[in-house]
Amino acid sequence: MIEVSHLTKRYGEHVAVSDLCFTIDKGKITGFLGPNGAGKSTTMNILTGCLGASEGEVRIGGHDIFEEPMEAKRLIGYLPEQPPVYPDMTPREYLRFVGKAKGVPNRELSEQMDRSARRAGISEVMDRLIRNLSKGYRQRVGIAQALLGNPQVIILDEPTVGLDPAQIIEIRDLIRALGRDHTVILSSHILSEVSAVCDSVLIIAKGRLVASDTPENLEKLSAGDARLEIELLCDAPRARRALAAMPGAQNMQTEQEGDICRVLLPVDPSPDVRAMIFRACVTADTPIVGMQLHRASLEDVFLELTQDNEEVAGT
């Protein structure tokens, strides 16, 4: 659905995006991640046709965004980080204005406005001034305008920034629903949000692509950091004897807290060794008080891939 090939954007001597290549399949929700100044906003502005490129090619649904801008842009709905809403309009007035600007035929406009409002959850506030709406509802109005014109691609830049926890959950549910009918690109600094809703993840740093995979596979990049925390009702020497045959036992760490020995055991999360540990402790007559597997998170992978890249300005 989206093909980016050798995309480069320069501002004088500064290179904001450098030889960026990736594809996004139809019907997928893709997280777009990177530290501040990595080139995310520049890339999204190029994808939406708001900014030209120094080199490279971007195709949306087979249309070149530079050679066929009108055809490509008809396939895109875009919500910038700051929703482009007019506070003195009502959502109904605003959606009508945006629909006309997008070239939605008059005979379809009212139906599309109603459908977009229902999907974004703003039907009950359509006749209130936007200035009187909460930030969560203003975000929803912004999403509703992105849906006008029945675009195949929805690009959302930080759609939950500044929202309260309840509003964040609502917007996440809405994004999941959008993913059933659209190709969605989600830019967010909330990495748990990306893990929760995205099928795949792109990570860029200093304008270059450093990772492209599913959240699950990216987390496996740091699988060596996975560890099992075990609490045993015994002393440290007995704990070490009970677990001596376990994979990674040579690197286990123990800490005594009263009658409880807390063991940190490096493990490969696949296959799961917890059943093996349970049987070993039963054989050694060493009661298990607690056991918890700590896996690498997307945050861990993100930091690992980007921490060596200096922050650059210009995006």
Automatic annotation (TrEMBL):
Keywords: ATP-binding, Nucleotide-binding, Transport. It holds the Pfam family ABC_tran. Signal peptide: none annotated. It comes from the Bacteria. Residues 199-244 form the Cyclic nucleotide-binding domain. InterPro entries: AAA+_ATPase, ABC_transporter-like_ATP-bd, cNMP-bd_dom, P-loop_NTPase. Residues 2-231 form the ABC transporter domain. Gene3D superfamilies: P-loop containing nucleotide triphosphate hydrolases. GO terms for molecular function: ATP binding; ATP hydrolysis activity. Transmembrane segments: none annotated. Belongs to the ABC transporter superfamily. This is ABC transporter ATP-binding protein. It comes from Candidatus Avichristensenella intestinipullorum.
